[in-house]
Structure prediction request, 215 residues.
Amino acid sequence: MPDLLCKICGLTRAADVALCHGLGADFIGFIFAPSSPRFLEPRRAAALPDGPALRTGVFVGADLAEVRDIARRARLDFIQVHGGEDPAFCRALGPERVIKTLWPEKLAPEDLERTMERFAPVCAYFLLDAGQSGGGSGKSLNADALRHIRPPRPWLLAGGLGAEKLFSVLVAFEPGAGPCGVDMNSALESAPGIKDHALVRKALALVKRQRRILP
Prediction:
């Protein structure tokens, strides 16, 4: 199995970003939705340190011009969209750098499959999250409902994931049917936007361990 990818989202501080780079995170996420308690101004995101992890911006309902402008100013590698964007919107951003968020709890299985087929040509990854819309809910997604899906693109699993439940969620999937990576945020925090370094270290150590033992 390819290495399990890890995205740490909701970052706001240089020390937390540096820690994620140093521990081997694959993606770091900055949230540009003003309603989020982890909202970050583009100039502050641009000033956060670079490293091996890919810089990802999270957008909820922003228009195309705004997303493009912030992506340039914040020096983003990937753009994660959480609104009602259509395939044309994603194509205009560049399919190779779009992460399209979907909510399986909102869709019947057949509708989820059809939606993924529609967006597969215009995104690099799907992100399947708990809740019904918008940004991360911090709730856990029922992995049982996803055990047999076969998305046409690699996908990340989100929804209240942290060191305590990471392994139990991932082993619920059949070999070859699970996510290519996980997206963690609120479960690694001491307060919104403030990462607990002990929790981040523990979670990333578990991801690396699972890279070795998952089928």
